[in-house]
C-alpha cells in the first residue's frame, strides 16, 4: 500500500526544488542566450552560492547513501569517498582551477582540443560523457529503488517523475538553476539528516556506539594495503577531470575565487559526511530483528547485501518517529533527485560545444549551440532514465567509467595544463590506447568482465585484483603521452619520417595556407589569414589556425576570456608576449602549428 504521508512529503520537496530552479532560471538576463550565460551562468556565480554549488559537486544522493552504506558494510576506514573527494577539490584548486579559469575555457575539454585538435578531443569526450550519464543514471536508479521500498511507489514512476523534474528546470535555467537548487539541496540534506539523528540514536533498539559489540570503525587487512591505496588515488586524482567540477570552476568570477571555492568546498565535503557517517554507525548498532522492519535479514540479524544500499532511508523510516521521517525522507529524496541535474548539464554542454560546434559546425551561431545543448539535455536525461530502468549493473558501468576518467583523462589534462609543450596528438592517441587496454585487462567484477591478466596479489577467492593496476595504467598513460610525443618529434625532425607522414599535422607537416601574424593590426586584433577569417583565441594563447585544423591547433570556434584581455588603454598587444618578434618554433604539439 502506498505511504500517502511519504508521497505528500516528497511532492512538497520536489515542488520546492522545482520552484527554486525556475526562479533561478529567471536570473538569466532576458535575450542573453550565449554559451557562457547558459553553461557558466555568465561567470557571475557569487561567493555564497559558489560555495554551495562547488560543495554539491560531490555531495549529493550517491555521496550520502554511499557513505552510510560504506560505514555499515566495511567501517569508517573503508569510507574513502569523503576524504578522497575533499582532497580532489584541494588538488584541483591548487593545480587546475587557476590556469583553467584564467584561460577563459568554457568546458573541461577545451584545453584538450586546444592542444590535440577537435577530433582527438572528441575521442576524449567519450569517457567524460559516459561517466556523467552513468552517474546520473545511477542516482536515478538508487532513488527509484529507495522510493519503491520506502513508500511503495512504483519504481518506474518514481524514476521517470524525478528525471522529468530535474531535466525541466535544467532546460529552463542552465547553470543558474543547477547552482541555486544546489543551495536548497545541501540545506535539505543537512537539516533533514541532523533532524533525524537524535531520534535514531535514542531508539531503544540501537546499541551504544562505544560498545565493543558494534564495530563501525573497521580495519584494512595487510593484503589489501595496495588495493586501498589504489582506490584512494583513484578518488583523489580521478575526481579532478570531471565537467561537473570544472563547470563550477569556470563559472567563478575570477581565477582566485575559483581556488578559494575549491578549498572551502573540500571542508564542506568532510562536514557534510558527518551525518551519513553517524547514520551508518547507528544502523550498524541496530538490532534490526527487533524493529518493525520485516525485510530479509541474515542469521545474525543484520541487513542483507541487497538492502545495504538503502541503509539511510531504512534508518529514517524505522528508527525515527513518523513526523521526523516524513520530513527527512522528503528532504533527502528531493536532494537526491536534484543531484542528477549537474551531470545532465555537464554532458550536454560538452557535446554541444566540444563535439557539435568544434568538430561539425565551427561557424555555428550562439543561438544554434544553445538549442543543440537544450536538445542534448533532453536526450541525456532520456538516456539516463532508460539506463536507470533497464541496466541492473548501472553502478558497475559508472565504476568502469570513473576508472577510465582516472587513467585516460587525468594524465592528458595534467599535461596540457602544465606541460603543454611536451605533448602532441600522437602521444595523446597512444596514451589513450595504452590506458584503455591496461584498465580493461584487469576486468570488472560488477560488469561480469573477466580479467585478461592476473596481476600480482590476485585473489582467486574474491576474484579481486589487489595489485594497484588502475594507478599503474594512469602512470603508463602519462609516460606514454610524453614519450611518444618526444619520439614523434625526433623521428620527423631527424628525417626518419617524411613530412607527408605527419598525418595529424602537428609536428612538421603544417598546412601552407596558415601562417602566423607577427604584427597586430591597428586595432590590436589578432587575425588568422585564411580567407580573411578572424582567428579567435583564449586569453594569452599564441596560436592561430584556419577552420580546417585537424590536430594540435586552436579551433577558431574557441573564444577569448574577457578577464585576461589587456586594458585597451595600454595599446595594441603583440601576438607573442611583450615582443613583436615571433618566438622560436617549439618542438611539441600545437606550438609548431600556426
From TrEMBL:
It is found in: Membrane. InterPro entries: Choline_transporter (IPR052244), Na/Glc_symporter_sf (IPR038377), Na/solute_symporter (IPR001734). The chain crosses the membrane at residues 6-24, 45-64, 70-97, 123-151, 157-176, 183-204, 224-246, 258-283, 369-391, 397-417, 429-447, 467-492. Residues 544-594 are annotated as: Disordered. One of its GO terms (molecular function) is choline:sodium symporter activity. Coiled coil: none annotated. It is a multi-pass membrane protein. CDD domains: SLC5sbd_CHT. It comes from the Eukaryota. GO terms for cellular component: plasma membrane. Keywords: Glycoprotein, Ion transport, Membrane, Neurotransmitter biosynthesis, Sodium, Sodium transport, Symport, Transmembrane, Transmembrane helix, Transport. GO terms for biological process: acetylcholine biosynthetic process. Residues 559-569 have a biased composition (Acidic residues). Pfam families: SSF. Its main location: membrane. Belongs to the sodium:solute symporter (SSF) (TC 2.A.21) family. This is High-affinity choline transporter 1. It comes from Bombyx mori.
